[in-house]
Design a protein that fits this description.
Layout lengths: L4 H11 L11 H11 L4 H14 L3 H6 L2 H8 L6 H16 L8 H5 L6 H12 L8 H10 L9 H14 L5 H14 L18 H4 L16 E12 L2 E6 L10 E3 L1 E2 L5 H9 L6 E5 L3 E4 L3 E11 L9 E4 L1 H6 L15
Parallel strand pairs: 1-7
Antiparallel strand pairs: 1-2, 1-4, 2-3, 2-8, 5-7, 6-7
The protein binds a DNA duplex (11 and 11 nucleotides) through helix 2, helix 3, helix 6, helix 8 and helix 9.
Enzyme class: hydrolase
Function: Adenine glycosylase active on G-A mispairs.
Family: Belongs to the Nth/MutY family.
Length: 342
Amino acid sequence: MQPIAAPLLQWFDANKRLLPFRQEPSAYHIWVSEIMLQQTRVAAAIPYYERFIAALPDPAALAACEPDALRKLWQGLGYYNRVNNMQKAARIVCEQYGGDLPADYDALRSLPGIGDYTAGAVASIAFGIPVPAVDGNVLRVFARLYNDDADVMAPATKKAFTVRVLDQMPKATPGPYNEALMELGALVCIPGTPHCEECPLADLCRGYAAGRADQLPVKPAPKAKGKVPVTVALIESEQGLLLQRRPARGLLAGLWQPAAWEKALTRDELTAALAGIGVQAALDEPLPPAKHVFTHKIWELGGWKGTAPACALPDGYVWAAPEDLAEVYPVPNAFGAYVKAK
DNA sequence: CACGCGTGGGG
DNA sequence: TCCCCAAGCGT
């Protein structure tokens, strides 16, 4: 394979987007943006990034943030464990590195939530350290460039591609090189039907030469998602909406939701379940059926809307007034059919 | 290595 | 409408 760096970097200079985290690319800014961008589109992450940096401008502020306030900043972005890990990492940064991210790949890689990709991105983009940052974009670009049919989801393939990425890297400008590969993947070498006619690497691309760039990269067939019934009780008292906190681990960990059970309950069973937490509810109106598709399962939501007298609640339950629902309690968008918490 | 873990936009 | 996903990480 001929060197790709020169045409790639020239294209990047002329075509890179002016993204907020490229304005003042401190290590903290790059870190926050890279965590947000994991499995997330740039357009979706930008407003979250702006708000997050304004509220928590440095690792010390992140380390000290109250958990519910932190999750509220992340509400709607998904993969909530990312922000929990980021706070753990911020505390380590404050305790062990004086409040600044370490300019060292292995030290970055050891922090919670920072894997091979993010360590490489922060090290190369923020610190100019010549290490690769291989994400889904880079895997797609290289699968096409080398006309390689290997399953890009397999860890072994990622390792082999990482060697090629490092071989091609101009050691003086690792950050722009890594960013340029990702930007090319995001703008030109896109999934499905790539824009090969405007690609700066088309002359070198073996997949293009073979006329099969649109068939790459190869990924395994997706697995079927299981369907899970969820019965929701949307209960209002004069003190607000009944919310419960989800378990600290697993799906939507630690977030708040209207009282709900991951099984199909009849109206009478739901009334009894609510009585079990001290809530004497009148269930007046069925909720419209709704569906929420996660990466690995599908919630089939239903239930009842009703009212109840305000009462004392067990730990992990609250009556949430409208302003607290909007500003205090992070509620996942999985319940968006019934609750608007933004 | 395989799986759990969110969400909203585009074809 | 449905299906594809998008700058991955932890276990």
